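Work Package 3 (structural annotation) set out to generate three-dimensional models for the target panel prioritized at the project kickoff. During this period the team completed the workflow that converts sequence records into discrete structure tokens, so that structures can be stored uniformly alongside our sequence database. As a representative example, we reproduce one entry of 270 residues exactly as it appears in the project archive.
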Amino acid sequence: MPGIYAFQAPSAPPDRDIQVYYNTARYNLAVSLKASVGQDPGLNYAALSTNRKGVIVDTSQLDSTVHNGIRLIVGLTFPELPDGTTDYTNYDVSIVSPMYMPVATASIKSKAVAVCSDGEQAWAFYITGNDDNNLTLSYITVLGGPFVYYQGRDENTLIYEFNQDTGAAVPIKSTNDAIPATPISIALDETGGRLYMYYTDKAHKVRRISRLIKDSGSVWSPSSDVHGLTTAVSPSSQLGVAAIANRRENHILFVPKNSSSLVHFKEPWL
């Protein structure tokens, strides 16, 4: 289950208020409930291995936003192939919950997808092009945050911050330790105005940088490890991070190397 997206459901009891969405090996969406306080309840909701296969690419990343009060989960899905065709040349960018709705076509060279909303419109970001030397970051208005983060190619493993309003892509120099094809996850402390970014380094360990978004002159902090988190991340796993405001914590979730279990680690806000 490489795709992981997590968020807090404020109305749920604290022993099961973190909802973790992930994609299964049989191409379906599943949900696991975690606790912001105390032990995780061990509640998982997923189709059986004997049930019908779904359409979500098993290596797709997942992302989510709330639009018009509806939480949308977005991922890459398999398009329907024409008769006589067996190979996929592209994937669909699709809303996979609460309904299935393809919205764009993406490259099979990348499994990354991101979505955000300003309350009135929602945008999906994805990679287009099937030539390794000619891949493009694209976006589409799905239903109608200005920023999206992605990594460079080849020897350039810096993570970039792309501003949709200005069209500028600025490298974040403190991410020069990122492993190629690193997962990237963002969490926001809305009260303190601090943005957190998590990624993995060349040893597959979780790293974190942050900056104050309320200060127009603020810069990203130096990269640091997550204190107490020493478990290596599986190369096929996404990082899921849920900001828990009432606990002033970021909850980090991922599949570790050489395991199929889910790591759930809590880091206090700065």
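DSSP finds no helices and 21 strands in the chain.
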